[in-house]
Design goal:
Number of strands: 14
Structural class: mainly beta
Number of helices: 0
Radius of gyration: 19 Å
Oligomer: single chain
Strand order of the largest sheet: 1-2-5-4
Distance between the termini: 43 Å
Shape: elongated
Strand content: over 45%
Helix content: under 10%
């Protein structure tokens, strides 16, 4: 077994994971055609973490609660084996929330969307809120600070430049957060 002295692959960053959601873990090949032999959750299985599917350089997981350790084993054509472990922590902690208490009746349309995504919600008070579009790897692709008004708010996001796939609208007021999944077609 080889350590990271000459890595065969890197695990692409995972920034945001919501508990109970499906996430895709991807690796980037750094050496000559390594093959992933095994994906294994070594801690966290009692908290609901599961590997749903593996295919070459990707694995789809169902996140549970708390922290899980994912071990990836790879072998190159010379028989050199590399093991890497990463810890993944979901966002449901005592300091976070799945909803923002001042935001009610959230809807997005159309879903799936091709060009313009409409986000509608009622706010019980005026406040400053951070709204991001986040991909399935947790990368924030669009981020803007906005002031929401008391009552109905209707925001539009140009998403035509996004590649097809699943994304989240992530809203945060600093203390609470909420994510809404949408599909770009």
């Amino acid at each position: 077994i080889i350590t990271d002295t000459e890595p065969l692959f890197e695990v692409l960053p995972i920034e945001m994971v919501d508990c109970g959601e499906e996430i895709e873990i991807l690796i980037e090949q750094l050496s000559t055609v390594p093959t992933v032999l095994d994906w294994e959750i070594t801690t966290g299985t009692n908290e609901g973490w599961l590997i749903l599917e593996t295919e070459g350089e990707a694995a789809t997981l169902r996140s549970g609660e708390g922290v899980a350790t994912l071990k990836i084993t790879s072998e190159n054509e010379l028989g050199c084996i590399v093991e890497k472990s990463i810890e993944i922590d979901c966002q449901a902690t005592p300091n976070s929330s799945y909803s923002i208490s001042t935001i009610e009746s959230i809807s997005i349309a159309p879903n799936p969307v091709a060009e313009v995504l409409n986000l509608k919600f009622n706010s019980t008070q005026s406040s400053s809120i951070n709204i991001s579009i986040v991909d399935m790897l947790g990368r924030r692709l669009v981020e803007q600070q906005m002031t929401v008004n008391t009552g109905l708010n209707n925001l539009q996001f140009e998403v035509g430049q996004l590649v097809q796939g699943a994304y989240f609208i992530h809203m945060s007021n600093g203390n609470e957060q909420q994510a809404i999944k949408f599909i770009k077609q």
